[in-house]
Structure formats: C-alpha cells, structure tokens
Amino acid sequence: MLVALPEPFSFELTTERYRSFGRDPVNVWEDGRLHRVVAGRELALAPAPGGVRVEPPARGDVEAEVRRLLGAPFDLVGFAAHAETADPLLARLVRALRGLRPSLTPDPFEALVGSITAQQVSLRAAVAIRCRLVERLGERHARAWAFPTRERVAAASPDDLRALGLSTRKAEYVVSLARSDVDLHRLAALPDDDVKRALTALRGLGEWTADWFLARHLGRPDAWPAGDLALRKAVSALYLDGRPVSVEETRAFGARFDRHRNLAAHYLLVANRVLA
DNA sequence: TACCAGGTAAAAA
DNA sequence: TTTTTACATGGT
Question: What is the pLDDT of residues A250-271, one digit of tens each?
C-alpha cells in the first residue's frame, strides 16, 4: 500500500540518520528499505512516487505513525520560504537537502531512553549501547526489534542496564524514568515550556534531553537544542568560519530561524555531516 | 595511549 | 551562586 507524504519528500535523506551511526536493531536498513516495528507489527518501508510503499498493508492508525516517522508534520514549504528571504546560506542548504523531513520518534519513552544513552558519549558509542539494550529487553520480530517497553524496563534492575554498558548513573535514570508515575503521552498536550519543565523535573533529564524530545518526538517547530555539541559545531563551521560558539551564543543564534528552529537545527546537522 | 564524543547531577569552591 | 568533577563506552 502507498502512504502519501507531503511534497517535497526525500526518503533517502530522511532515513540517512538510520545509516550513519552503526547498526540499529530498531530501525533496520536493508535492501534499500527501512524495517521497523509499528504498533506491534514489523513493516518494510520503501520509496515510492508521492510517498512510501508499506508492506504489509497497515491500518489507519499505523499509517499515521508511519507518516510521523517520516516527518510528515513539518512545514517544509514555509521553512524554504523563510530561508529564501532571511538566510542565503540556509536557503542553499534547503535546496541541497530538498525533501529532508526529520524523522520523528513515534514513542515518548523510546525517545527519552534513546537520549539518555546518547548523553555525553559519541553517537557511535550510544548506538552500540542502545543495541545491547534492545536485544536484551526488546522484542524480536523478523528483521527489526521493537524497542523495550516501559513495563519491561521498569521490571529490570539498574545493574541489568549497567551490564549493557550504561554508566551506573544512566542505568538509574532509565529505570527510575520507567518506574515514575509521569504520563509521557500526556506531555503532547502541553506547550513547549511546560514540557521542558515536566521533563527536567525528572532526574537524568536535563535541558538538552528535553529539547530533543520537543524536536524529535513532538516535532515542535521552534525546538532548538542550543546545548547540543554537534549543533554548536555545525553553527560554528557553517556560519562562523570555525570559531567556537558557547551554548548561550548558540541559543541567541537560533533567533534568525524563528518559528522554524527545529527544521533549521536538523538541516544544519545533516549539512555538516553529509555535505562536508 | 591518550583523548574526545549530539550531558547531567552532585560536590567543591 | 558559580565552577569543577565523575561517569563508561567506542573510535581514532
């Protein structure tokens, strides 16, 4: 079956991040297709005119999740128009990366645990650790694994996670998040600042993690992870001739992308990675 | 071998 | 209040 996506859409660019940091058993790239478990069933996604081909055919709610996974909610047209009038460099990146729709992580728990594993360490290291976590506590399907459920993680001990390569501290963060009484799905109803407050009140979730939750789970247009080292390096390399920038400077720099900070952050990161 | 990598909380100053 | 430190792994 065909799942339509708004133009422009590039399957290749949108899935780039699933091929760049090592083996990911949750988002499996094989034979030019992306394999992922959605609502308990493994799907294979392949590029098709006007969107993606999904096999096997899926129900309506599954289709909605696939569309989020491929960044359907983003306003690429408005973003391109903003870039053309406000920022010539960004306009060039938008043309070079035409159709890049940042992938949204469909599940809030998966998004947060993924971020915790990525705190401070390289993404290659994070992916290797996450891989062991998934194959220990997740559910195996044909080619892909379902990310571990919150219930399954809540039943694990910090020592179990420590044995997978998480630090003692991070193992505690992950287990206590799973066991907390916060309703992660309810956060979608709150404005950005309230989401950040709710998340950073939890141990192990700082501003960086909350910003990426807004950006890559909720797809909020103005999420801007100013504390992100890779984003700071991208701003430095693309706009400032390599001069290092502080977190505060990066935060202020985001003003020029007003109402489109999320897309801008993703375009800068991908540009700095693949156009270098 | 060191050192850095898409942070965070807690100790020390 | 602000600054410093520990943390565990993977890649170079």
Answer: 999 999 999 999 999 999 999 9
Element spanning A234, H or E = helix A229-239
Residue range A31-50: mean pLDDT, rounded: 97
Q: Which nucleotide is nearest to A266 (CA to C1')?
A: B6
Any strand B atom closer than 7 Å to A249 CB = no
A73-96+219-276, CATH topology level: Endonuclease Iii, domain 2 (1.10.1670)
CATH match for A108-188+197-204 among 1.10.340.30, 3.40.50.1370, 3.90.1150.10, 3.40.1080.10: 1.10.340.30
The SS3 call for residue A52 is strand
What pLDDT, in 10s, does the model give residues A168-190? 999 999 999 999 999 999 999 99
Give the closest residue to C8 (Cα–C1′): A167
Q: Which of A32, A31, A30 has the alpha carbon at shortest distance from A12? A: A32
Provide, in whole angstroms, the distance separating residue A241's CA from nucleotide B3's C1': 24
Which nucleotide minimizes the distance between its C1' and the CA of A270? B6
Which nt has its C1' nearest the CA of A231? B6
Cβ A200 to strand B below 7 Å: yes
* Residue A105 to residues A144, A154, A160, A217, Cα–Cα distance (Å): 15, 20, 25, 5
Instruction: Please state, in angstroms and rounded to a whole number, the distance separating the CA atoms of residues A131 and A137.
Output: 10
A168 CB closer than 7 A to any strand B atom? no
A66 CA – B11 C1', rounded, Å: 46
CATH 1.10.340.30 domain extents, chain A: 108-188+197-204
Which regions of chain A carry the CATH code 1.10.1670?
73-96+219-276
